[in-house]
Design the sequence.
């Protein structure tokens, strides 16, 4: 168990190319479960492999348990990794796979067997499987063997590189909670890479969102959702994604769907300071409340602080409890997704209007994407 | 009427004709496969049959298919073959082991952890095969003479190893390229050093490839004639030389030669048969997952 610190860590694959990981600063506390998330090419896997020692650093350093490990061989880092395709040794039995690292450490066979069985028990892995070869296992069992191989070592840090991506949807959800629970029980510092923001949100104590090799935001899942620092994080975290629409500025607010969305005073200050003529509005699907209000856009007295957006339903995605409405906003306001109650959702073609609270509206700089007055 | 039939016909036939085409295609390939297979096998079969004939019946025209089989030629062959087969076995086994011991680390250094200029090294190895052996026989003879290795089994071990090494390196390298990179990374994180990585992780995975490589080395070494003929006389003379020597200056010899050739090919067939399973796996190594 140990804390991990990336200090300006960089990795450049080819001279002159964009760095795969660009001056990454990240402090991971002892025992913490941190998820690196981002689209493909964001550098999340590279960052993980740098910590494992599988990628050299082209700048900065990585500190593990207070010691600079930038030039330490992978085998001497005391780090265990679960690979995306598990990377099991095909010619070794499950028990040999799991005990291989211990064998390399010259742990005596009885002790090795004891720890392998212990890990199998923790993972609910049938003891009869221990004598089988990986080929004879199902995908889910292989995944657990890969986990077991990491656990038996009792390493300082667990690294997991999209360990669930080869499982089917149901097993993935199940294993997701198992891994999170296991990590909590073992208390080993864990760095987990995924492109799936749901995995990131549900598993991590803290989530680092990466894009283009740069760290965008490092915060708790709740904080990422409620307070994204920029347009990228806002659009990446949350499913369905936040609705992001460019809107021109007018007196008192931003013009969208033929109506004026009032802006928070801090946003108005920022707009004035940057002399903006337009900005990007972000509204989460659950913040678009279906309303019976007059869709003409006329604001009723007493609701001056609320905007009403009108539009036409194009498509309804039934999810069961909820339904997702794909709505084309009036006045060429673009298409947005709204979350509505499943049993009372309007049919496609219906004209609807949504009430939006100004407090629920995010505003982003149209060029830099930075949150305005965040 | 014609319009109707014309419209009807294509609606029915395409499926049928496609099936027919597929079927006839299959039959065609099967027939071709058998024809080629038989064409390769018949001379061998003829050799074996002739080996069981008495010398008088071996070289008749038209060929005799009915004869009373005899082992007399085999008995004759067996009598003089002992030392030759021993030399061949030593030279073949020794050179093959040497090749594997050298080729394994070489292939590793050219694939999994490539050294600088690995491409040039790889090309250099194969380029040594481009020179005809005849061109090198003079210098080889002088070297063997000066180092007192003429007519020595050691010389054959060294030369056969050198002869097979480039091919073995290329083959084993291609098998190593199939080893999943993540598995090697897992081994590195598990604490395996370079030797352990090769012995414990890579070797078990490429074993089928090593077996097929070894088999090819065995075949080439066992059948090699030119070097043995020029650099050995009696102390290290091999099976192919025995075949030549079993051709007498005069008289009938076809049955005798066939018997000797049959005996000479038996070890290779046995080795090939044992290696068969690994060979197939070796040729389909990509299936590792």
Sequence:
């Amino acid at each position: 168990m140990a804390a991990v610190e990336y200090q300006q860590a960089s990795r450049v694959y080819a001279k002159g190319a964009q760095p795969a990981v660009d001056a990454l600063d990240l402090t991971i506390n002892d025992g913490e479960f941190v998820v690196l998330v981002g689209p493909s090419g964001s550098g999340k896997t590279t960052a993980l492999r740098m910590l494992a020692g599988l990628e050299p650093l082209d700048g900065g350093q990585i500190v593990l348990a207070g010691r600079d490990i930038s030039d330490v061989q992978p085998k001497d880092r005391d780090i265990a990794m679960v690979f995306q395709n598990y990377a099991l040794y095909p010619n070794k039995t499950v028990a040999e796979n799991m005990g291989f690292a211990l064998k390399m450490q010259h742990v005596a066979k009885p002790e090795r067997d004891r720890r392998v069985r212990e890990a199998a028990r923790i993972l609910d892995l049938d003891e009869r499987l221990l004598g089988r070869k990986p080929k004879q296992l199902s995908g889910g069992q292989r995944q657990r063997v890969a986990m077991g191989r990491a656990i038996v070592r009792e390493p300082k840090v667990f690294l997991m590189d999209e360990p669930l991506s080869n499982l089917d949807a149901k097993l993935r959800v199940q294993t997701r909670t198992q891994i999170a629970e296991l990590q909590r029980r073992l208390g080993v510092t864990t760095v987990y890479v995924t492109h799936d923001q749901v995995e990131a949100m549900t598993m991590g104590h803290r989530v680092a969102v990466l894009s283009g090799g740069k760290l965008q935001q490092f915060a708790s899942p709740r904080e990422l959702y409620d307070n994204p620092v920029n347009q990228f994080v806002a659009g990446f975290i949350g499913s369905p994604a936040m609705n992001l629409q460019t809107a021109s500025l007018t007196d008192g607010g931003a013009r969208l769907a033929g109506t004026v969305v009032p802006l928070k005073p801090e946003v108005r200050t920022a707009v004035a300071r940057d002399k903006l003529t337009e900005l990007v509005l972000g509204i989460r699907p659950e913040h678009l409340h279906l309303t019976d209000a007059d869709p003409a856009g006329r604001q009723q007295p007493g609701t001056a602080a609320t905007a009403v957006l009108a539009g036409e339903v194009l498509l309804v995605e039934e999810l069961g409890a909820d339904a997702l409405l794909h709505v084309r906003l009036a006045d060429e306001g673009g298409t947005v997704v709204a979350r509505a109650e499943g049993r009372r959702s309007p049919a496609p073609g219906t004209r609807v209007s949504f009430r939006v609270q100004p407090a629920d509206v995010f505003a982003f700089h149209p060029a830099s994407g930075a949150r305005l007055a965040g | 009427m014609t319009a109707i039939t014309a419209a009807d016909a294509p609606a029915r036939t395409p499926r049928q004709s496609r099936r027919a085409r597929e079927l006839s295609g299959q039959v065609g390939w099967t027939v071709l496969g058998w024809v080629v297979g038989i064409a390769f096998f018949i001379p061998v079969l003829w050799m074996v049959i002739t080996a069981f004939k008495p010398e008088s019946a071996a070289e008749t025209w038209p060929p005799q298919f009915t004869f009373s089989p005899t082992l007399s030629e085999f008995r004759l062959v067996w009598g003089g073959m002992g030392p030759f087969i021993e030399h061949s076995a030593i030279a073949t086994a020794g050179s093959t082991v040497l090749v594997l011991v050298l080729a394994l680390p070489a292939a590793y250094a050219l694939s999994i952890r490539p050294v600088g200029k690995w491409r040039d090294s790889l090309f250099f190895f194969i380029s040594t095969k481009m020179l005809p052996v005849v061109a090198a026989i003079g210098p080889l003879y002088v070297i063997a003479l000066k180092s007192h290795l003429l007519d020595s089994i050691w010389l054959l071990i060294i030369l056969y190893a050198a002869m097979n090494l480039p091919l073995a390196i290329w083959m084993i390298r291609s098998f190593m390229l199939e080893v999943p990179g993540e598995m090697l990374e897992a081994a590195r994180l598990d604490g395996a050093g370079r030797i352990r990585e090769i012995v414990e992780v890579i070797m078990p995975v490429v074993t089928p490839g090593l077996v097929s490589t070894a088999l090819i080395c065995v075949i080439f070494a066992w059948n090699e004639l030119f070097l043995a003929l020029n650099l050995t006389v009696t102390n290290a003379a091999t099976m192919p030389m025995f075949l030549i020597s079993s051709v007498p200056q005069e008289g009938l010899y076809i049955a005798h030669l066939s018997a000797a050739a049959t005996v000479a090919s038996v070890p290779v067939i046995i080795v090939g048969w044992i290696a068969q399973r690994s060979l197939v796996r070796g040729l389909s190594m990509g299936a590792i997952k």
In short: The domain at 243-364 of chain A is CATH 2.40.50.140 (OB fold (Dihydrolipoamide Acetyltransferase, E2P)). The longest helix of chain A spans residues 169-186. DSSP finds nine helices and 20 strands in chain A. Chain A has two domains: 4-236, 243-364.
